[in-house]
Structures are given as structure tokens and as C-alpha cells.
Write a structure and sequence with these properties.
3-stranded antiparallel sheet, 17 helices
């Protein structure tokens, strides 16, 4: 039987597999996450480096799915590809892959901080960082787009279907049955599903976006700010963002696919918006429009970073607008979809569906159903055609 890893037995597991001794672990951090079908632990070593441990959890019918295998396989593939040197520079080195227990372990240096914590600690939103990030994503997408070996690898068939697939919760596309719903969402998330399913226009927009997404290049498909690591020496890399370097690392590739670059960009933008949306003043008596204006971190503080991210991406990958004319419109819609995925993630982490989630869902609906109007209001740019945004 597979061994389920937890904060109670992780030190024993590391010792038994000759990875680390107990004396080399300084702290098991509080952000141990138990999410439906997965497990995630974050440890601090005695030298202050970070250790990430991921596991797919047991199921009644099969004891693990392919997420950790997919992530390990991708990292092994990139390490062997000399024509993907930049993409390879973004990943971390694996310490251990335990296939029998579906456990993946890797670490990163204390010199790195995830962008979510970076912004939270400093409360400063330098456009130099978002500019660096835009260049990085554009180079990743452009480099893999031109790699036939990467395309072939990412489109491999396993068990009769693509091994790497665009992530989309089934209950967002179809009316959920009690069996499918309880498998993926705990009861605390049922009010969200009911509210989401009550909006036909929102369901139609999500369904159309998922089924028409592009199969274009390697995409990480979960580019939240806490999956992006930035070096403490990031300023030294501003002039060489398009070359392999150590300024930025990307973790948690378990949802990657040969997918749509607009989704990666939209997910990053959604994380910037969540800095704003998670600082709302939440009172039942306050309307959404008023709550958005009263946020402790206002939208106009975040807008320059979003603008810089988009401008640097397009500057590094200008041909995307010719090859994908609806790209920016799709970026805005995928931003809305990523906000909905964030609510789903919260529900799967057993959080309750509160007023903050309702506000996030309302903003997501506008992004998905009215992308042109939302583009102007989110970016703070008026009277400009999306195709000319450079």
C-alpha cells in the first residue's frame, strides 16, 4: 500500500530514503495543504533553503493519477533538450521521485522568494519585475513553439488519451451529478457551484473558451504568483531576460500541456488582480462597486504591473498578434477563467464560499462575458484597439 506523506511522518520518510536527516530540517511550515486528490508540504532546511514535497493521494479505484509522473517526465525531457535551454533554466532540479508512492521532491535556494510573498512583504509593485516576467513567459512560449521535439513529447498518448491536458474541472462545463460533485468539491463549495451553474452566459463563455483554446506551445497552466520564484539578485538580470539565467524559476508543472499561451498570461494577471480583490472591504451592506473602490490595495496600484507584463510580452513575442489575432481578447477571458479556478482551489482546500468569493466571481464573469469592456477597465486604458496594444 502506498504511504501517505504528512507533517507527522515526513521527517521519517526523508531519513528512510537518505534525503535529509532530521537535524537538517529547520521547520515544517504551516502551509501544508491537504487538497482533494493531492498533498503538498513546504519545509525549511537548516541552511534556509526550501524543500517542496508533492504527492497524489489515494483513490478508491486507483491509488494515484499521473500528475507527479507528468511533472517528473517533463523535467527529465527538458533537461535532455539542448534546443530548449531557456525553458530548462526555469525548472528546479528534482531531489527524489518515488513512483511507488507518487511523491515528487525538489528544493530551491533561500535566494528565491515566490512573487506572492515578495509582494506581500514589500507592498511595492515594481514594473521592472513584471517586465522581466513578461519577457520570461514570451521567451518560454516562443522557444517551445519552435520545437518539434517538445510538441511531440507534450502530445504523447497514454491510456488512450493525451498525457498532458488542459486543466478544466468537469463540473464547470456540465451540470454536475452528486457523484461527480462530491468527488472534486467538498460540501462547503456547493453554494459556489449552484451560483456558477445559475448563470447561463457564464457557463457558455467558460465552455466556449475551454473547447476552443489553442494548442500552440508549452504552457504551465497554473502560473499563479506563488508558483513563480524570483531571485534576490533579479535586478542583475534585467538586460538578459531572454537568455538562460537564474532570475526567475517556475514550480509546480503538474498541470502543464501543449496549450494556449493566453491562459498562462491570463493566470498571471488574475494573480495580480487577486492582490486587489483579496484586500476588499467585505460587508453585506456594501455594494460590489463600492467594495472594489475601498480595497486596501487599489486597482490603480496593480495596473502598472499588468500593463508592463503585457507590453514586455508583446515586445518579446510580437508575432503572436499576427499568428493569434484574438490573443489579447483571449488573455482577458482566461484571466476570468483563472479567477474561477482560484475559487475552485479555495473550495477544494475546504474554505467557505463567502462574500469575497462572490465578488471574485462577479469580476470573473465580466472578464469572460465582456472582455473588450473589461480590458479597458482592468488596464486603465481607454479608446484603444486590442490589436494595437503594444
Amino acid at each position: 500500500m502506498a504511504k501517505r506523506i504528512s507533517s507527522n511522518n515526513v521527517l521519517q520518510y526523508l531519513f528512510e530514503h537518505d534525503i535529509y536527516k532530521e537535524s537538517e530540517i529547520a521547520q515544517i511550515n504551516n502551509n501544508h495543504q491537504s487538497i482533494i486528490n493531492s498533498n503538498y508540504l513546504d519545509l525549511t532546511l537548516s541552511n534556509q533553503d526550501k524543500l517542496i514535497i508533492k504527492q497524489d493521494l489515494l483513490d478508491d479505484d486507483y491509488w494515484f493519477d499521473s500528475k507527479t509522473i507528468n511533472e517528473f517526465s517533463l523535467q527529465s525531457f527538458l533537461n535532455d533538450c539542448h534546443d530548449l535551454s531557456f525553458s530548462c533554466s526555469l525548472i528546479l532540479e528534482n531531489l527524489q521521485f518515488d513512483e511507488s508512492n507518487s511523491i515528487l521532491i525538489y528544493k530551491y535556494s533561500k535566494a528565491y522568494t515566490n512573487l506572492k510573498d515578495f509582494y506581500k512583504d514589500r507592498q511595492v509593485f515594481s514594473t521592472d519585475i513584471s517586465n522581466l516576467l513578461g519577457n520570461t513567459l514570451a521567451t518560454l512560449h516562443h522557444e517551445t513553439l519552435n520545437s518539434l521535439s517538445c510538441k511531440d513529447f507534450m502530445n504523447r498518448i497514454a491510456r488512450g488519451e493525451p498525457q498532458y491536458k488542459f486543466p478544466h474541472p468537469v463540473h464547470l462545463l456540465d451540470k454536475p451529478t452528486p457523484e461527480t460533485l462530491t468527488k472534486d468539491i467538498p460540501p462547503t463549495g456547493f453554494p459556489f457551484i449552484a451560483l456558477y451553474q445559475s448563470s447561463e452566459s457564464l457557463r457558455d463563455a467558460v465552455t466556449e473558451l475551454v473547447f476552443t483554446h489553442k494548442h500552440y506551445c508549452l504552457t504551465q497552466n497554473n502560473l499563479k504568483l506563488d508558483n513563480i520564484l524570483i531571485s534576490e539578485d533579479w535586478r542583475e538580470y534585467l538586460s538578459i531576460a531572454k537568455e538562460p539565467n537564474d532570475s526567475i524559476k517556475i514550480i509546480n508543472w503538474d498541470k502543464c500541456s501543449w496549450g494556449d499561451p493566453a491562459f498562462d498570461l491570463g493566470t498571471v494577471i488574475s494573480s495580480y488582480l487577486l492582490i486587489w480583490l483579496n484586500n476588499l472591504i467585505l460587508e453585506p451592506s456594501i455594494k460590489l462597486s463600492e467594495s472594489l473602490e475601498l480595497a486596501n490595495i487599489s486597482l490603480d496600484v496593480i495596473q502598472p504591473s499588468i500593463n508592463s507584463l503585457l507590453r514586455s510580452y508583446l515586445s518579446s513575442f510580437p508575432s503572436i498578434l499576427q499568428e493569434y489575432p484574438d490573443f489579447l481578447n483571449r488573455v482577458i477571458q482566461f484571466t476570468g477563467l483563472a479567477l474561477i479556478y482560484e475559487i475552485v482551489s479555495m473550495m477544494q482546500s475546504f474554505e467557505s464560499f463567502d462574500y469575497r468569493c462572490i465578488h471574485i466571481l462577479q469580476v470573473a464573469k465580466k472578464l469572460l462575458c465582456q472582455p473588450t469592456e473589461a480590458f479597458d477597465s482592468i488596464l486603465g486604458i481607454s479608446n484603444i484597439k486590442l490589436s494595437n496594444f503594444q
